[in-house]
Amino acid sequence: xxxxxxxxxxxxxxxxxxxLRTYILSCQKAAFQRHDAFKVxxxxxxxxxxxxxxLLVAGPNEDPESGPQFSKWExxxxxxxxxxxxxxxxxxxxLKKDLLDKIPRGQGTPTVHAxxxxxxxxxxxxxxxxxxxxxxSFASKDSVKTPIFDLILLGCGPDGHTCxxxxxxxxxxxxxxxxxxxxxxxxxxPRRITLTLPVVTHAHKIxxxxxxxxxxxxxxxxxxxxxxxxxLPCGLVNEGGGEKxxxxxxxxxxxxxxxxxxxxx
Length: 265
Ligand SMILES: O=C(O)[C@H](O)[C@@H](O)[C@H](O)[C@H](O)COP(=O)(O)O
Description:
By secondary structure, the chain is an alpha/beta fold. The chain is 32% helix and 17% strand. The structure holds 6-phosphogluconic acid. 6-phosphogluconic acid (6PG) binds at residues 43-47, 79, 91, 155-157, 161-164, 187. Pathway: Carbohydrate degradation; pentose phosphate pathway; D-ribulose 5-phosphate from D-glucose 6-phosphate (oxidative stage): step 2/3. Residues 12-246 form the Glucosamine/galactosamine-6-phosphate isomerase domain.
């Protein structure tokens, strides 16, 4: 068996957020050793609120110099819905409201790559343009074969989807495009764009952030890796990303799950 993902579980979401902060800051440090930027991709859903808890509050003994250097952050969306930014389904809108608008002045402003609203009715064009944005960001110094994000932060749906990669969907077999359109998402809204599986698994680090008892059945399948769990999108990320993958959960989400590599940060 190849190297496995790591599982970190905490009693509360606040506790999880404090440890997620430490993890993100260590990813930031590693990124700055590679280049003068921190290239991150984020999903939608409950992640934005947990990220805000993690990033807006410094740890009690934290050196201010080692906190988030937002002016060097380049934020992309791991998936996005084809809706205007003020629509409640917009992942950009959600991140802006929960996190970006709350970053204190003086802590810098991240460069955020949102979708081009001129093409909301054409998912292929949206995806192509988003891929162009990735190409301009990653082309100069990094490998252009597949962009290598410093960190990808993901959620896990109750059906085992991640990004907008859904169980059994043909997009799971996409191996050329970096960003793909989807017109038939089983979770509304149907028209979206998503990073493809190879881009996700190529990242230096991949973190799932999953909370709440509603996720424990699907996490059991994914983390105990039964046949079904291994074929789910989150299971495929675990398999492709191996030890680069870390799961940050609260205790409720992993109640009754047996997993060999439980650790603490
Ligand atoms: O657009 C989406 O559907 C999200 O980006 C998706 O991938 C999300 O991360 C999961 O559905 C988990 O969402 P929750 O954390 O809200 O359950």
